[in-house]
Amino acid sequence: MDIRTVYNNGTCDSLIDMHLFLHYSLIPSVLIIILLSFLERRSHSTKLDDKIQLLHRRFGFVIPLDLIGTFHNRWTFGFAFGAIANKVMSLFSNEYLPPGIPTWARALGLLVGAIEVGMSYYPIFACLTTDNKIIGSVIGFLYTLTWISVTITDITTCPHGNAMGYYEKVIFQWPSLLCLVFLMGRFVYIFIKYMRIYMGADIRSDEKCFLPIHQAEHVRRLFRKAALEPKNWFERKIYTWDPCFKFPSRMIGTTVLSLFCLYIFVSVEYSAFINLASLLKMYEEKMEQAVPDVQWESYNQTVVSMKEFYEALTGVWFFTTFLANAVTVSYIFHILACYRKHMKRLWVGEKGFLPIKFQTPSSSQCVAAIARYSGWQVAHILWGYLIMHIVQCLFGLIIVYGFVYPIKHGQGLELLKGLGISILTLGIGISLSMLQVLLASNFFLQKKIAPGDKNKPLALNNRKGFHNFNYFFFFYNVILGLGACLIRLFISLTLGSWLIARIDRTLLQHGYESADTGYKTWIGMIYVDHYHTNPVLVSFCNILLTLRAEKRLQDSPVFHGYNNSRGPRTSVKSRTRWLLYYTLLNNPRLIIQRKQKEMDDLDNRNMVMQSRLIQASVLEVDIRNIQDRPVDINSVDIW
What we know:
There is one protein chain. With about 650 residues, the protein is mainly α. Among the domains are: about 285-565, no CATH class; about 570-639, no CATH class. The chain is about 70% helix and about 0% strand. It has 23 helices and no strands. It has helices at about 5-10, 20-25, 25-40, 45-50, 75-85, 85-90, 105-120, 120-130, 135-155, 170-200, 215-220, 235, 250-290, 295-345, 365-410, 410-440, 465-500, 515-535, 535-555, 555-565, 570-585, 600-620, 625-630. The longest helix is centred in the middle third of the chain and has 51 residues, at about 295-345.
């Protein structure tokens, strides 16, 4: 049987119903979550632990992914996001809505469907983040292998699907299948690595560190003056690599998910356009065969118009598909560059690039923004691509019908005539606008205050002439303002359609930024990252935690036993004397500020004060000689 016949008759039935399998996958998913939760230990015990001794602080929370401060295994989590790309796109098509659901409950139905999809892929993320790496890698490998087997079976038994076109499932599902294969290999690598550690053949080197290495290097770079190295063309024009900055797993995962979802969306759009073009072609052929013997002029013009529209739409659509796709992909990577630029500005305390309303955002809104950023970013990317593609197609058709077809039909001279008149009118309007600026600069402003000033002062000159100039140009500026308004509208439409995918900048005017929910989500997200991943703040907290751990270690009996062993040792009193001596040596004026143990009367106080002033002056004179002289710590006594 021919593939076309099979597809058109709808006889392509898969051995596995993927929707039914998704429902049944919740059973092993819940069991895996319970098992991993049993292996997790809680930091604090509860009353239930006291009653049931077997618990011993088990059944802790399982974390699928840290969306704030995770900087390791970023690409692994990125491919984990890519594995769910086809399911995310299915959420847009309302495939998970139960049949017969009322209209008012569609939002709740979508919520239930989204939770179901998240729960079915929860074990993959949880097995990557669990501390029990061996058990997690085995469970993750088996669960991922199950999804790969089911997906391959569904593709091989029915590769064409029932909706869009030939090999639909192969085209749509190979990115997610590739990500699942990568994750399966990743689980194998984790199992082999930690088995070697368990057997003593290797040393574990991926312990959790409060201060990541790249943030420590960033703080260290702040304390030293870095030499300016020459940059190449790519670093000057496009992107400069910073080894002391790493994007969190959320940004990497969002980027991978956006790319895969964009690929699936473009494939669906292409299939839909092919079907639409086929319908137009069939309609055109039927019109040509409708009246074969009678030649009607109006009928022939309609057929020719249909052919021209089909050719123009097909050519413009394919050209703008590549253009819109290239622009959207560049936006996805440009958002990463803007994220790094905004984070570095916030690190140094620079908030001038943000609107005044957003410089002190609400904490609750910021926390909600970090949760919804990834989903909103993917949605903005897809909608931005579609709207930009449609607008580009409209502009392309305008160009074809405005320039190409008139020249093709021998109307090039009339086109040039109309184009010349339009350019002349536009040129006259621009010239008169520039003339007003030129007259204002030469006749209606006073001279420069100093010869070196860049601009003239904003002080009027020749006021009577200026009032006549303002009066006569008032009437023409009404007509000129109409054209400027249309140009403003055209520019706003063009930039708005091109920048919908850019969630990192607002599309609204100054003062209305709070109505742009996408931009508010971006601002809240970068604020959360700024407060939780600022290298200077994290380094300071790491120092405090280190000092606290050292103090606890010093107070422990093990440390005292080690401290009483043989070896060089400096007493606390001697160390304090040395620090006091070094401080007073570099700041001799502080001697007069020191407290006295016994001051009977004012005369004694004055005598001591005079003596210390003399001592301070002597120290200031001989400070260099004293600094070069070796000092015995235990012999210094300034108390």
